[in-house]
């Protein structure tokens, strides 16, 4: 190891640890994203990675002697050990501690050459069960190399068959004792918890859960460094299932410490990451409050304790703390954070230890935490039950939409006593319903529409609370997407821009609130089709998050979504890096509650489609749909959005009946959830129209198309440029196929004034081939050429899925034919067929007819034409494919005459 590496190891080690937790295929991308100041270590990191790979390939730490499962060796009593005794390569120094199954001794190498002292773990008896437990602990510890975890140095057996583990000796006290002896403050205790979170998150990254987090297994050294110990009952997450009869159960034990067990462990279920989050919450409760969350039950019998863990909601830590200053410090955010970790339902806890740590850091930094007090909907329901007469439908709906703002209103009495910001939020929301701040209840506008309530609130947020930047930022964050959904795009843009300006002024351009605000503006960039601007801001946010080492999934989901989503619509071609980001967004979103998976899943589905990966696109969107149905309900607009796109993918996969069912359901659900003029309904209706237009339901398709066009032209939807493009261009294609030239020409003229381009390469491609066809019909070959030239970049963009450009090949072939180059025309038409798949049935059918009407086919080519016709007859028949089958019959007839 060279001198420079040693001198800079403090800077290099965190980067190496992060690298080694990633799959090999993601490591290069991680290195590419390192900021310039850390790029200087790239060569060193690559060298260390190669060394690690070589060590793994050589079986590092796998050489330890097999721990025997034979029970033929006579039992040895735990009291037989004595100082100076030699066991294998080790000489015992003194006993450090003893448990029911093993003792831990301070030991040093017996040969005296290297005097590293270790903690030598020795079982009381070399039974098969204990040997298996030691083997498990050895296998787990061999994976872990972290400053917050006691390391495994060696493992093996003595000549008489006694298993042993030699681990790092930690000279320290258990967590609770050390904190109490040092008279630590709450802030100092949180620093200890963050160390433990870091170590535990690292273990989870290595697919290891601890399952026995308690004070005795967390030692604190004199310098304040925590060390996580005893992975003896840890479990590898990658194990498909834990055997029903493990060594632990054979010993008559469940793998847990009762007072620190999670509800899942008490029920006898196989625990996962959520179980460690829970036990970490118990540890945090003990450390911060000085009491067990189940203090009353702990003093009773084990059954009472288990019942408490399953059913009893602990009081907040601040209520249990004895010191008044500590009670005050815990009240509010810390109570909420700890109680979220202690949720009975694993889905209501933090999704990861890092998410818990991120909220602790937010609290320390004075930022709003993401944890919410339990079920504000439950509290809202109780509020309404107490005040049935005074709560109108509008007010109730506003509370539901305002979310956290509604929670501040419901819990106003408690919030005002706890934090000034909650009081400001309460006053703001109350002002929506009592704008004159009358001292006597006075409902002046009982029938005020919900949209107007929200709009009033949004405009008030722009002028009020300037002395409360956190409250104002939260309101702007919540209101901007809500206002945008209601069609007030200009107002939403102002809200998002104001939040960006406020955070820049209050916190600076390298702050997390500023990065959050940049990403918060992405909803507007999405609605208006400003993809390049959105990508630029997402990259700004990414740089800030990386500088702050952000690992919080609630921040990373929107970041990855925007990097990938804006990226693939801004780059010259669909790049795998974009898919990487969207994959990460969808995977993270699926693990979190109250995170809408619609946009990430749709964007990933579109990108997979553009990469020619139709099954992967379908899988991505189906997973998102299932998550949204679970979190928001089958009748939610969130589920409807994904249902519609899944229907489009089923159509592309040549499953028309499934497509129709999904799209009809999406239209019904969206109409019921959001009303007849909602912009999302236009997108769903044009999707259903596309699935029906080629079949026997063309008239219904025309009606759907007309209503979709009506919706996007409404003044309230004027800001949705991206959706308007989608609906107009898809409707244009159907109008052309149906011979409605009077509808085609004005739309083409409109886009001609916009430099022949729509918002994305897909819609530009679709637009260009339709408008080129219209120009050819009118005999304007020059204009047709201009349309096709404008779409040339599409060939680069769709390199991996050339079927998307086959419509352009058809038009280019028709242009060549009109110019007298028949060979080039035939080449282009046949090339279009060579790249076709199930996604472009209209263009395939047209290509076959063009070829058949202009050249004599050989037997093989005619056979492929007939096979394609049979394929459509079997997949959908006349009901779905009447238009295409008619073209194919004409093609076959022309060959037979």
UniProtKB/TrEMBL annotation:
Please provide, alphabetically and separated by semicolons, the GO molecular function terms listed in this UniProt record: kinase activity
Q: Which InterPro entries match?
A: Kinase-like_dom_sf, Prot_kinase_dom, Protein_kinase_ATP_BS, Ser/Thr_kinase_AS, TPR-like_helical_dom_sf
Annotated stretches, region: Disordered: 247-267
- Boundaries of each Protein kinase domain copy? 90-370
Q: Print the keywords alphabetically.
A: ATP-binding, Kinase, Nucleotide-binding, Transferase
- Cross-referenced Pfam families, in alphabetical order? Pkinase (PF00069)
Residues noted as binding ATP in the record, renumbered to the chain: 121
Kinase as UniProt keyword: yes
Q: Which domain of life is it from?
A: Bacteria
Nucleotide-binding among the record's keywords?
yes
SMART domains reported for this sequence: S_TKc (SM00220)
Supply the PANTHER family for this chain: MITOGEN-ACTIVATED PROTEIN KINASE KINASE KINASE 20-RELATED (PTHR43289), SERINE_THREONINE-PROTEIN KINASE YBDM-RELATED (PTHR43289:SF34)
Q: What is this protein called?
A: Serine/threonine-protein kinase
Task: Please give the organism.
Answer: Roseateles koreensis
Q: What is the lineage of its organism?
A: Bacteria, Pseudomonadati, Pseudomonadota, Betaproteobacteria, Burkholderiales
